[in-house]
Amino acid sequence: MDAKEMIARRAAQELRDRTLVNLGIGLPTLVARFVPPGLHVAFQSENGILGFGARPPEGMEDPNLTDAGGGFIGAEPGAASFDSAMSFALIRGGHLDMTVLGGLQVDAAGRLANWMVPGQLVPGMGGAMDLVTGARRVIIAMQHAARGESKIVPRLSLPPTAERRVDLVITDLAVIEPTPDGLLLRECAPGISVAEIVAATAAPLIIPDVVPDMPLGGGR
Amino acid sequence: MDAKEMIARRAAQELRDRTLVNLGIGLPTLVARFVPPGLHVAFQSENGILGFGARPPEGMEDPNLTDAGGGFIGAEPGAASFDSAMSFALIRGGHLDMTVLGGLQVDAAGRLANWMVPGQLVPGMGGAMDLVTGARRVIIAMQHAARGESKIVPRLSLPPTAERRVDLVITDLAVIEPTPDGLLLRECAPGISVAEIVAATAAPLIIPDVVPDMPLGGGR
Amino acid sequence: MRKSISAAEAAAMIPDGARLMIAGFVAVGSPERIIDALVARSARGLTVIANDTARPGLGIGKLIEAGCVARAIVSHIGTNPVTQRKMLAGEVEVELVPQGTLAERVRAGGAGLGGVLTPTGLGTLVAEGKQVIEVEGRPYLLEAPLRADFALLHAQEADHEFNLTYRLTATNFNPIMALAADCVIAEAMETVPVGVIPPDAVRTPGLLVDHLLERMH
Amino acid sequence: MRKSISAAEAAAMIPDGARLMIAGFVAVGSPERIIDALVARSARGLTVIANDTARPGLGIGKLIEAGCVARAIVSHIGTNPVTQRKMLAGEVEVELVPQGTLAERVRAGGAGLGGVLTPTGLGTLVAEGKQVIEVEGRPYLLEAPLRADFALLHAQEADHEFNLTYRLTATNFNPIMALAADCVIAEAMETVPVGVIPPDAVRTPGLLVDHLLERMH
C-alpha cells in the first residue's frame, strides 16, 4: 500500500452513513474508493452535483458530467444536479457533513494553508475557502512532509485558507487532531513510532499515554 | 365603458413588444385583457411564472398554476416557472420592463403609497416595494379620488411604498407624469376638461398648452 | 430507502412555540396535511415564516383560525381578514417583510450568508431601526438572514431518498426554505422510486429533507 | 419566433476591452463556438469573469493563449499553466475570488442586491481592503456585486423564444450569469420549437437572452 492509498483509506474511516461529503481534487478524490461497506455516502462535487459515482467505462462518458477537476464521473440513482450558487449554498450554509482536502501547511492553531505559495505557485483557492469555512467537519489529507520539510508547522508561513481550525489531519505518518490546546497526536501510521512522528513534525504535539495505530478498514 | 375598464385600456397602451410586465392584483390585472393586437408581451406573476395566460375554462384549471392573488391562470407556450428567489431576482434586478400597480396615494414628488392605512387597513406590501424599487417603468393605475378625496396629494399622508418616483399615473380623469419639476398633466379622459382635473386634484399640476385626450386603443 | 412518517407523527415532532417556515403562496404549494395535523394536535404559540397567511379555511389560514400562531413573519395578510382582525386585537403579532426581501432573507439563512443588502424598503417604514450600508456609492438596507426550527414543504414528486420536485407556481418558497431550517419535513403528491427523477429535475436534494410524509391512500 | 445569429456576428458585437462573463467549469458548459469566434476575430483587452481559465486549447484557455484576455476574475487558474505563466509575466492580470463568493457576487449583480455578506475569506488575503460587517454578533466580509457587458452562455436546449435548459454539471454558472450582463448571448446543443420545454424545465427565461447562435449543421 503506498502512502497516498494509506492516507485515503484512513480518511475513509471518517465517513458516516447518510452524509454529504465533498472530496478535494488530488489525493482526497481517492477516498471515494474506500467507502466502508454498508455506508451510504453522497459525494458532492462543487461544480454542481450530489450523488456522483465512479467514472463510466471508456466510451460511456458524458461530456456534461464531470468532477471539479474536469474528470468524467457517473451519477448514482437519486443524484441531483444544480447551479454554482446552489452548490455553494450547500457548502457555505452548513449542509455539507464533511470535506476532505489536501494541504500545503497546517499550523499549531489548526489553521490550513492550501491555495498559494506567493511568487511561485498561485493556483487559486477555487472552492477551498468556502469548504473550510462551511463544512461541518474539515479533514486534511496530505503527506506529512514536502521536500524533507514538515508541513505541520508552529505557525503558517503561507497565506491561510480560512480562520477556522480544521478538525483532523491525516498524513502518511500520523493522525493529528487540532484542539484548542494544540495539536493532539491521535494515531500512528503502521510501523511508525511516536518518536519518529515528533521528529518529523515542526509543530509541538500533545502526546497522550496511548497512541494507537491507524485503522485502515478492510481491503479491496 | 366603466372607469376601471378605461383605466386598464389606457394602461395597456403603455405595453411594448417583447417586454416583461408584472400586473398588480385588482384593477391592474384587467390590463392583460387589452393588449394591443400584434404585441407580444410576457406577463410575470411574482409567485413564480413568466408567460402566463388567461384563466382556463371551468374544470380545466390546475391548482398548481395561479396568479399572485391565488386565481387560476393558464400558461402560454414558452412559459417559464421559478421559485420566489428567482422571481424577485427578476424584479429587483431590473429585468422587468414595466409594472402596473394600484395606488392609495401619489404625491407631488411622484412617490407612491399603496400598502397600508395605519390603524385601519394593513394588508402588507407583498411584492409592491420590490416592484416599485426594481421595475424599469412603474405605472400606477387607480381611481383619481376615493370617498371624494383626491388620491393625488401634495405630500403623502400614508406610508410610502418606495423612495422612487413613479413614471406614470393613469386615473379615470387623467394621465399624469411625475417629473423632477412636479406633476405634469399629460392627457384628459374623454369628456373631462383640464379645469375639472385641476379641481379634482389636491396636488399642483403642471399644465402644458395642449392636453390631448387619452388614447384607449381599438376594441377587444 | 428511507422510511416515511404519518402527518400526526410530523405534527408531534413540532413542539408548541416552535419557529416554522411554511411554503406556499395563498396556500398554493403549502403542506396542507401537516397543517391539518398541527391544527388537530392544537399546536400553540407557533411563529410562522411564510409568504402570507392564505385565506380562512386554507393553508396557513387554518393555523391562524385555530389559534396556533402567535407570530407571523409574512409579506402580506391582505387575503386573510381573520389575520387582520387578530392582529388588530393583539392576538397575533405580524411582522411585514417585502416579498423579495423575505425570499432573500430565507435564502441567506440557508446559504450561510450574513444578510441581504437590498434597495427595497429604503425610505419606508421597513427601514426603521435597520442599518444602511453603502456599496459603490449606493445605499442598501441590511436585512438579517432568517432560519427556523422546522421547514414544512409541499412537493410534487418525492423519491424514497426524499429528492423533491415542485410544480409550476406551487414551487414558490419551497426550494429556499428547504435549506433554512434545522429540520425539514415534506409532503408530496406522488412518491416514486429512486432514480425516476432525473438529476436535473431534482429541485431539493433528499439529503436536505429529514422527514417525508407517507403517501396518501 | 426570434432570429438567431452566427458565431461571427456574436463575436463582432463584442468590442475589444469588453467585460465578459463566460460560463463553464474547466470548459464544461462553456460556449466554445462564441469563444472560437472571438479568437478568430483576434479580440483584445477582454476582462473575463469566470470560474476558471480551463486548460490550454479548451474553453477560456483558447482566449488566454490567443492573447485576447487582459484581466481574469476567476476562482482558480490551477488547471491552466499558460494563465499562470502569463500572470507571472504580467501579461494577464488575475483577481482570485473564492468560488462561492464569485457565484454570489454574480448572483447579486443579477438580482439587484448591493453585495454579499459571507464568512468566506475572513482572516485571509481575500479580506484585504474590504469592509467587515457584523450581523447578529458575527463578522462577514462585504463583497461587491459583479456585472458584465456580455454574458456568454452554453445551453443544452433552446427554443425559438430563447428559453434555455442546461445539463448536469454543464449548468454551473450559466443560470446566474444570465441575469448579470447587459447583453446575453447563448449557444445551445439543440434548438426546439416553442412549447417543447415544459415551464418547470426552463432554467433561463428567453426574455433574459438577447441573442442565440444559429444551430450547428
Task: Offer a concise description of the structure.
Chain A is an alpha/beta fold.
Please give a structural write-up:
The complex is a heterotetramer, with two copies of chain A (220 residues) and two copies of chain C (217 residues). Chain A has one domain: 3-Layer(aba) Sandwich (Glutaconate Coenzyme A-transferase). Helices cover 15% and strands 28% of the residues of chain A. Chain A is built from four helices and 15 strands. Chain C is of the alpha/beta class. Chain C has one domain: Glutaconate Coenzyme A-transferase (3-Layer(aba) Sandwich), CATH 3.40.1080.10. In chain C, α1 packs across α2. Chain C is globular and about 50 Å long. Chains in contact: A-C, A-D, B-C, B-D, C-D. At the A-D interface, α2 and α3 of A face α4, α5 and α6 of D.
| Poorly predicted runs of 5 or more residues of chain A | none
Overall average residue pLDDT of chain A: 95
CATH superfamily of chain C: Glutaconate Coenzyme A-transferase
What percent strand of chain C?
A: 25-35%
Structural class of the helix and strand makeup of chain C? alpha/beta
- Rg over CA atoms of chain C: 17 Å
Instruction: Return Rg of chain A in Å.
Output: 17 Å
Spatial separation of the terminal alpha carbons of chain C = 20 Å
Class of chain C, according to the CATH hierarchy?
A: Alpha Beta
Strand content of chain A: 25-35%
Low-confidence stretches of chain C: none
